Amino acid sequence: MPGIDFTTVRQRITMAEVLGRLGFQPTSVRGEALRGPCPVHRSASPGSRSFSVHLGLGRYRCFRCGSRGNALELWAAAHRLSLYEAAVTLCQVVGVEVPWITRW
Ligand SMILES: [Zn+2]
């Protein structure tokens, strides 16, 4: 299994892009800070504000399930994937090339 350059994946894929692909609908917006239902534990109520995300920092956290991290980690947590699987599927969904690390 070839390696993946995770740094490049993180640089190419923004938090806004991941939120869009997850169908995230914020219930509150303050500049780049959004709150809303959590795509990781799948908040039952669409009016939930347990999930907090900052677009500029590219970080999220949920006060309910405790999940937190960057855009790639959010994609992995929401789909129950390993970081490796998350990087591959996310690149495919967004339409960027997977930055494989080729070893000589
Ligand atoms: Zn949560």
Describe this structure in words.
By secondary structure, the protein is α+β, with helices and mostly antiparallel strands. The protein has a single domain (3-101), classed as DNA Primase, Chain A (Alpha-Beta Complex), CATH 3.90.580. 34% of the residues lie in helices and 21% in strands. It has 4 helices and 7 strands, in the order βααβββββααβ. A 5-stranded antiparallel β-sheet has the order 2-3-4-5-6. A two-stranded antiparallel sheet has the order 1-7. A hairpin with a 5-residue loop joins strand 5 (59-62) and strand 6 (68-70). Helix 3 packs across helix 4. The radius of gyration is 14 Å and the shape is elongated. The two termini are 14 Å apart. It binds zinc ion.
Question: What topology does this entry show?
Answer:
Blueprint: E1 3-4, H1 6-12, H2 15-21, E2 28-30, E3 33-36, E4 51-54, E5 59-62, E6 68-70, H3 71-79, H4 83-94, E7 100-101
Antiparallel strand pairs: 1-7, 2-3, 3-4, 4-5, 5-6
Helix pairs in contact: 2-3, 3-4
Bound molecules: zinc ion.
Label this structure with key terms.
binds zinc ion, elongated, alpha+beta, about 100 residues, five-stranded antiparallel beta sheet
